[in-house]
């Protein structure tokens, strides 16, 4: 009897969880708002049976992994750099990605999601994009962007693409889907 009861509870929880999941068609509708709808759909459909808040959390977790990997890459680039201009650029980028930059903004995005402040999620995620762009383009428009032959531009592009999915999701949070 105990085994049957626990099996019944498991089945109930399974149906309860999936009943709030966003259907693939809805994900595709949301992703039509993204700059790269195909990337967005692939990313979000890789986490089936999640609701909109769950998909946003999932995407935040992916951004966190990307930002952490980017910081590790920047640390390596600083250590290996012999050119003062390169070293200065990478140190600037480290500031843009660290706890006072993208990582701090990501923590704030997470906090706002937990509070249900979905407009705040959008604004905080926008700040992450600003930090990424400051790394790539520099803080001042009058200074030409640093020509970076490393893997850093690729890392920043991928991270920015994932953050753009958070921006799309945050616009849909709180709406009836």
UniProtKB/TrEMBL annotation:
Organism of origin: Psophocarpus tetragonolobus
Record-linked SMART domains: PMEI (SM00856)
Listed name of the protein: Pectinesterase inhibitor domain-containing protein
InterPro entries (UniProt xref): Invertase/methylesterase_inhib (IPR035513), PCW_Enzyme_Inhibitor (IPR052421), Pectinesterase_inhib_dom (IPR006501), PMEI_plant (IPR034086)
Family affiliation: Belongs to the PMEI family.
Keywords in alphabetical order: Disulfide bond, Signal
Keyword presence, Disulfide bond: yes
A GO molecular function held by the record: pectinesterase inhibitor activity
Disulfide bond as UniProt keyword: yes
Domain Pectinesterase inhibitor: from-to ranges: 22-169
NCBIfam families (UniProt xref): PME_inhib
